[in-house]
């Protein structure tokens, strides 16, 4: 897939990103990051964009790792239920 330039605005700054993903998806990601940065900025006295960006990255990483853990737990539960179902079927089939 060919990369194309997509213009976005994050925390008051315009960026031209090159991406092979659909424009709507890139803009949605940029809007998410912008929203998170604004949320972090409200909770801190810092006006330094770099400081806010790092705090935002830490918050997003925490959210990601939490969701990844939830997904792994869910997959483990599904596997356990599938294993029990296979055992049940094997017992019934004789």
Detailed description of the structure:
The chain is built from two helices and two strands; from the N terminus they run E-E-H-H. The protein has 94 residues and is α+β, with helices and mostly antiparallel strands. It has a two-stranded antiparallel ribbon with strand order 1-2. A hairpin with a 2-residue loop joins strand 1 and strand 2. The radius of gyration is 21 Å and the shape is elongated. The termini are far apart. The model has no long low-confidence stretch (mean pLDDT 96).
Offer a concise description of the structure:
This protein has helices at residues 23-42, 49-93, and strands at 4-10, 13-19.
Question: What is the percent of helical residues?
Answer: 55-70%
The class by helix and strand makeup works out as: alpha+beta
Principal-axis shape: elongated
C-alpha end-to-end distance: 52 Å
- Tell me the β content: 5-15%
Mean pLDDT across the residues is 96
Number of strands: 2
What's the main sheet like?
Answer: 2 strands, antiparallel
Count of individual domains? 1
Tell me the series of helices and strands, N- to C-terminal: EEHH
Number of helices: 2
Q: Report the C-alpha radius of gyration, rounded.
A: 21 Å
Please list the strands of the largest sheet in the order they lie side by side.
1-2
Unreliable stretches (pLDDT < 50, length at least 5) are none
